[in-house]
Amino acid sequence: MKRIAQWALAASVAALALAQAPVATADARLGxxxxxxxxxxxxxxxxxxxxxMSMLWVGHVDSPNAPAPNLPFVLALKRPDRTRFEITALNQxxxxxxxxxxxxxxxxxxxxxxxxxxxxxxxxxxARDEQVIDGPLLDHAAKGISVALEGTDKVEGRDAYxxxxxxxxxxxxxxxVDAQNFLDVKYDREARGPSxxxxxxxxxxxxxxxxxxxxxxxxxxxGAVGMDKKDRLVIDKVSLNPPLDNSTFxxxxxxxxxxxxxxxxxxxxxxxAPVRPTP
Length: 279
What we know:
Blueprint: H1 2-16, H2 32-42, H3 46-50, E1 54-62, E2 71-78, E3 82-89, E4 92-98, E5 103-108, E6 114-118, H4 121-129, E7 146-155, E8 158-166, E9 172-178, E10 184-192, E11 198-211, E12 214-224, E13 231-240
Antiparallel strand pairs: 1-2, 1-13, 2-3, 3-4, 4-5, 5-6, 7-8, 8-9, 9-10, 10-11, 11-12, 12-13
């Protein structure tokens, strides 16, 4: 189950990341601020995103590292940085939850009961760096994120602007924005591979759809640079501004060896598969 839990964390990380594309040449006259503004407009507008206080995604994951295909998941997000990810694998539920300061992982133990462990320091750092609702570009200055235009690249045959982001923690990210439709097409971050060595993780955003006025990618693929096989997260349903109590993101309280995780009175309860309905 340890391998499943490690894979589940990678899938949840891929899911936190937000924002893709329907061939044009990049306009060399555009600066970083203009590209960011066009990206916000393409995604539905800054005002529409500022009204989104919480989101719920329901979908499934396919991964070459997963124990089975089409694993159901539920991801709950709440401003500013609370997250809860649940996935069901081999009839066992695995949970990763972050309350804005601390995080916990729940997985089945060897004795059959749930095992709760705190996030590592690297996991806490990553969770604090993520902009879980609207991504790093929107209102980036207010978030303490600096953005610079590094140049243009071809991403799957299309021109895309490559933006370099410096986060308040000092971490660096890159975001590629399509030169034609100005949607995010790719994102990368540094991580540690299974061996503990540094690795660059790529995230691709596909199949954008309109959800109550904002555009959200319904397919997210992620994996280490150079790897042919990627984890694929498919969103089946998204809900905007569902009522999510803060207790949903608190340290899981376990009742007995075989009890399920308590997720808060106002949040959808877990079933045999993870919770129900939304980005």
